[in-house]
Design a protein that fits this description.
239 residues; mainly beta; 13-stranded mixed sheet
């Protein structure tokens, strides 16, 4: 039961979710002109937001392809499909389902304010946002300014921390500089109905961001269970 629980958490953190067969999980070769630029980009950003966008690699039409290890759904493709002011919509495709994420760049950091599984491809979630979105359940991905030792808490109680900046990091895409490392630690209290036992499960997610590129590696660890997604290719999918 514990292994099944850990695997589910890893899947939710590393990509999407859904009932997908192994055969469906192979990633498609997406065309380089998959996104129509018209009506998808509206910007009005501050310098701080521009700096955060650079660290996260946010650019309309940018597409990241990740190799996966440890879980059949750890490999995925992520694409920035819509941009409006300080909001960015990203679609993640693991070959069988699409997960949509909306990221908001705020004066104090970058937040994931909306996550939608089984997302219809191409649906614009930014048009559905309120003028002042509810930030109570938003997950801060990065603080601003980005300083080693900065800590914050997610709505679910997970503890996040900037553990390194300006480091080097090697992924299949290449050896990269100006890398920021963030660690998210989650402690979950679990009850096993079959054995009537209660225990705590600690999991750690390490995220590595390279300036002007974005997320280059994501690593989930829970005990001996490790799942990684590592960047292998970047394209720009604008027509």
């Amino acid at each position: 039961m514990r292994k099944m629980f850990i695997a589910l958490i890893a899947l939710l953190l590393l990509s999407g979710c859904g009932n997908i067969s192994r055969e469906q999980a192979s990633l498609p070769d997406l065309p380089d002109n998959a996104i129509d630029k018209e009506d998808r980009l509206v910007t009005n950003t501050t310098q701080a937001q521009e700096e955060l966008a650079a660290v996260l690699g946010l650019q309309l039409g940018r597409q990241w392809r990740y190799q996966g290890e440890g879980n059949e759904y750890a490999a995925f493709i992520a694409t920035v499909v819509y941009v409006k002011d300080n909001y960015y919509q990203i679609e993640e495709n693991n070959g069988g389902t699409i997960l949509a994420r909306v990221i908001a760049l705020q004066p104090d950091g970058a937040y994931e304010i909306l996550t939608q599984g089984e997302h219809p491809p191409g649906k614009n979630l930014l048009n559905e946002l309120n003028a002042s979105p509810d930030m109570a359940n938003a997950k801060r991905l990065l603080p601003w300014p980005i300083t080693v030792g900065t800590r914050w808490t997610w709505p679910d109680g997970s503890e996040a921390e900037v553990v390194a900046v300006n480091q080097q990091h090697d992924v299949p895409f290449g050896e990269l500089n100006q890398v920021t490392q963030v660690r998210i630690t989650t402690v979950r209290r679990i009850s096993d109905a079959a054995t009537n036992q209660k225990f705590e499960e600690t999991s750690i997610v390490e995220r590595f961001y390279a300036k002007d590129i974005g997320l280059i590696e994501q690593r989930f660890t829970a005990g001996e269970f490790v799942v990684t997604s590592r960047l292998e290719k970047i394209t720009l999918t604008l027509s």
